[in-house]
Amino acid sequence: MSAVVDRGVAALALVRLMQTSHTATLEQLPDLIAEHAAGAGMYDAAVFVVDIRESVLRRLTGKGPDAGNDGQEFTVRGSLPGQAYQRVDLLTEPTTGNAPDGRRRWWVAVTDGVERLGVLRTDTDTDDEPTRQAVRDLASMTALLLLSKRSFSDSYARLVRTEPMNVAAEMQWNLTPPPAYAGHDATVGAVMEPAYQVGGDAFDYAVAGSVLHLGVFDAMGHDTTAGISANVAVAACRHARRHGASLAEIGELVEQTLLEQFGASRYVTGILADLDMDTGRLTWVNRGHPLPILIRGNRWTTELACPPAGPMGAGLDLPVTVCTEQLEPGDRLLLYTDGVIEARDTRGRQFGRDRFVDFIRRHHSGRRTLHETLRRLMAAVMDHHGGKLDDDATVLLAEWRGGHQDELTP
Amino acid sequence: MSTDRPHAPYGWQATLNTHVHPVTADRHLVTVAGDLDLYTARRLADALQPLLQREGQAVLAGLPGVTFLDSTRLTRLITAYRTARSAGAHLALVAPGQPVQCMLELVGAGQVLAGCPTLDAASH
């Protein structure tokens, strides 16, 4: 007898799953999810999480030091689960697939609506719209459960790493907000490499009312102290911001804090920006950093010029200019650190700014999401540099829709 | 003429790389031959430091042939500038290569470390 998936029954199962999860550990999630899903006609549910470089999907089994013992693994590139992940979609295996009893096997991206955490696999007897919806609902709930447990799970941290991490990277990954945001007519995505050996790069964003604050930082050096100075800079920036400081004042407070700590021996360059998500008005200050790039449609690209006020912590006492730009709906803003364009191939040729901007323009179109574009960009930068970067490379891409939020593709 | 005192462990290399030329009593030209690597940047900073602590002193740092400036090296120049500023001395860069000039402009340091285009111009 085949079980029909009813969305109401599934919804109740998900609520019970949520309540049970409150006192569960990450290791207990796979069994809890499978058990509650089976009660709603979604069998053999399995959770796969993506590594921080988004190259591989690893099954969360709940066993062993990384909660992934005896688990299957798929590459993001070239596998069906990887396709579901890349497209942020629900895909089904061909009927001759691996599911027992003639069931349909589904693969669906696990996402909280913005950040992609991995994929979920489950089998059902039916293949109709309510079934598809219930599988998507299960994936949404799985995303929230993973998010609620991962911040204090060393097993999760181990499972999503494919290499050992240095101390600075350990700091930076805890410093930055999630690599994806969407809401209030804007989408933000960010990537940072070398993921396991990062030095002094950091990015930040935050929302207050209709203002989206954006920041990219590059602390000099590639050692642990670079990581410390980036942390000090971001913390000082948040401190100033949350006390209502203007962009110019934020930069000055970061400068003073770094001078107190390092006496001008360490500095941090950066772009600090505020985007009014209601009006599209962008304001920013340039603290000795590569200029933001504005992409308008696929026709027009420009660097947003703004006189540099010197790196924060260098104590040059240069005047601070607050620059403004009116964005148009659909505009994309790129903030980045020099490691992206200066990555060199074996013949010494840089990846270059033109190739960087071209890549975003060609890949970030229609069916591909902003985050998938960034994943591919970083893979291309890494490939260009033979898989290993000498300098930190960070890209933050923000898209403003201006009243067309329904067109946002997280 | 080199007034850079050699000391272990860098000794002989230092005399090869950093040269201090007195132009007038209150004007010195310090040049670095070859590339400004981590080692020569430190020697340059060491050579500049005592000169920059004299009020009214004009110090010209000659960087012919220097084609690359990373953040660590830039920090040396910024530190030298700050020393000069607090002592009332003046530091200028002479003949920085195009990439160095670009880096200085990018971060804003070019606004305070402006310089002469050639060594000849600086020597007179």
Description of the molecule:
By secondary structure, chain A is of the alpha+beta class. Chain A has 2 domains: 7-159, Beta-Lactamase; 167-407, Phosphatase 2c, domain 1. Chain A is 33% helix and 26% strand. Chain A contains 11 helices and 17 strands. Chain A has helices spanning 7-21, 29-38, 80-87, 129-150, 154-159, 167-175, 224-242, 247-262, 339-342, 353-363, 370-384, and strands at residues 43-50, 56-59, 73-75, 90-92, 104-111, 116-124, 180-183, 186-193, 201-208, 211-219, 268-276, 281-287, 293-296, 300-303, 323-326, 332-336, 393-400. The model of chain A has no long low-confidence stretch (mean pLDDT 92). Chain B is of the alpha/beta class. Chain B has one domain (15-59, 68-122): 2-Layer Sandwich (Transcription Regulator spoIIAA). Chain B has 5 helices and 5 strands; from the N terminus they run H-E-E-H-E-H-E-H-E-H. In chain B, helix 2 runs parallel beside helix 3 (71-87). At the A-B interface, loops of A face helix 3 and helix 4 of B.
Features:
heterodimer; A: 410 residues; alpha+beta; Beta-Lactamase; Phosphatase 2c, domain 1; 2 domains; 6-stranded antiparallel β-sheet; 17 strands; B: 124 residues; alpha/beta; Transcription Regulator spoIIAA; 5-stranded mixed β-sheet; 5 helices; 20% strand; globular; disordered N terminus
Q: What is the tally of beta strands of chain B?
A: 5
CATH H-level name of the largest domain in chain A... which superfamily? PPM-type phosphatase domain
Question: What is the overall pLDDT average of chain B?
Answer: 75
- The termini of chain A sit apart by 39 Å
CATH third-level topology of chain B: Transcription Regulator spoIIAA
Compile the SSE list and pairings:
The complex is a heterodimer of chains A (410) and B (124).
Chain A: H1 7-21, H2 29-38, E1 43-50, E2 56-59, E3 73-75, H3 80-87, E4 90-92, E5 104-111, E6 116-124, H4 129-150, H5 154-159, H6 167-175, E7 180-183, E8 186-193, E9 201-208, E10 211-219, H7 224-242, H8 247-262, E11 268-276, E12 281-287, E13 293-296, E14 300-303, E15 323-326, E16 332-336, H9 339-342, H10 353-363, H11 370-384, E17 393-400
Antiparallel strand pairs in A: 1-2, 1-6, 2-3, 4-5, 5-6, 7-8, 8-17, 9-10, 10-11, 11-12, 12-15, 13-14, 13-16, 16-17
Helix pairs in contact in A: 1-2, 1-4, 6-7, 7-8, 10-11
Chain B: H1 11-17, E1 18-24, E2 27-32, H2 38-52, E3 58-62, H3 71-87, E4 90-94, H4 98-107, E5 115-116, H5 119-122
Parallel strand pairs in B: 2-3, 3-4, 4-5
Antiparallel strand pairs in B: 1-2
